[in-house]
């Protein structure tokens, strides 16, 4: 007798084997994640999410839908936990004093290693230290308790933040309100010497000794090896060279330098393997796994990101061998997400958390089947080396692109070739750190061996990053990110299952990736007849003005050669007709290595503040320009408006010097480019005195497009802005920079003059069309 067809339940779908797949935990986990991200903003958002959770839970009970009920409970739980945190953070005395910007006396415990930024050009050194407040005194009142905060310092005081984790310190600071996404009562700006009042406890002291011992074991290795091994083992990037960081970012290897589930997985495989060899079995083996996981969390610092990495690592271990039971792995992942966002709601706003979850989900859902498909023609190790990074990259690519504005073409190949060396490096680094606790001398040879195991990873990163089109630019707008996400899903669900089982299709796919790494497509969305592009070079300036197909005037280079290379490639510029260096600050000339010896340059224009001769090697002899000089480039006409220091003193808006040389800023070249359709004014870092001098000179500085002086600092002259009367204002500024650029006063002034303001920190590179009627942004 034929069976009656059964209706599929909303609680399940069907697996490859025809068994029902229970994914009911997926919806509560996603709901808790989304609601926690909303509720941590505090205020009415908590009540809104809590109310929606109660409604959803009540509907679930009425309809006897336990999945809907669980979603409501998860929503209400996320709102409740976030509400308790928000109340503790926002309504405490330290939070009130931070909002008042009061001078406070603080006793706190150091909870993480300081993040350090070296001085670059005129930008001073800076550091940020995570602390837990114990006692705070202000206005004659004393508060005691335990709440998280951030301590910041710059200049010479930044070095003081290099404090051992677990130590208790005391200092004076000025309070500042926290960022909305920070789990913190505020940001404290250091205003005194730091005094240590208590040494770290035994557990923190042991972890500190392990990390210091590992760094010491690498002391005799080359700098790249010495910096990278601690990064791979415990996420310590304090000595990682900047070039390695940049190449890892381009090649999609950055995840290796962050504490991840892979670190814990490798440690568990190594230690549990030794335990099995010694005859340990059953609950003793499970107990050892718990101890290893606890030690991992302590050594890598018990921060939210480390707890997240530990959870993902344990899920990966639990999912071993579940290639045909993907739902079981996703249930474990959903449970981990649900628990983690309820423990720490701020994880829901962490990009690292999102990357970990999506990468783990991609591996659990796709990698097992892809490995099975490839094993028909490839050995198991090759199938795993291809399937795992490919699944992770497709799952995380929309998030990575949202953060970087790029799609790494070489990422899959880089991970494929670097992957086999990660395990040996991690194990040898772990051994070096452990041996250093007993005998630092014996740890040295082990660290040296770890260094040479990591050298192939360094070579892979350098070689892959040197490809002309290693990373393609991609506009980070909601529409383009959705398009990219859909493309990744189609590729994973429809393309890869057909490509991977066939050797010749895999070979063809590899050839396409190689071709793509050497020739990037034109930048999607740039207007065909663009005239001006404000490059996204971080905290610096670089503008392209189109002279002819493939040729442009380049005004300044920004601080980062790689960012400038990416901008030139996306714009299709292969020759520089005129290179204008407005002044010598590093954020305007630091990108010169991207041009010197790499791209033909016909003329270099400098003013009174020219860069050093050593910075100009590989470039044509410079031409000194002065006010009134003109250059004809076909339909383009360049006119130098100013090119020397102003006779006036340039006062700072806040009455301080800010560590900058106002004379150098006012020595910036000011140039007007006329294209026939548009007038573009470029200004370098011109400040108030320089702007006033330009207005007083009587020069015609009316322009359709203004490259806003000094990254939109508060030092703007309203008469200058009114005289330019631009329709479009381009502000080139680094995201989350420490200077407060662009200043709200400058933005108000620009908009008041009738200009539409575009910012590279929020919108990426900006291209203006030939008629000036439209501007296209990367994000």
Structure description:
By secondary structure, this protein is α+β, with helices and mostly antiparallel strands. It has four domains: 22-90; 93-200, OB fold (Dihydrolipoamide Acetyltransferase, E2P); 205-487, no CATH class; 530-648 and 661-777, Ribonuclease Z/Hydroxyacylglutathione hydrolase-like (Metallo-beta-lactamase, Chain A), CATH 3.60.15.10. Helices cover 46% and strands 17% of the residues. The protein has 24 helices and 26 strands. Strands 17-16-15-14-13-12-25-26 form an eight-stranded mixed beta sheet, with no helix packed on it. The protein has a seven-stranded mixed beta sheet with strand order 18-19-20-21-22-23-24. Strands 3-5-6-8-7 form a five-stranded mixed beta barrel. Helix 23 (744-752) links the parallel strand 23 (728-731) and strand 24 (756-759). Helix 3 runs parallel beside helix 11. The chain is globular, with a radius of gyration of 28 Å. The N and C termini lie far apart (61 Å). The model is unreliable at 1-18, 320-324 and 647-659 (pLDDT under 50).
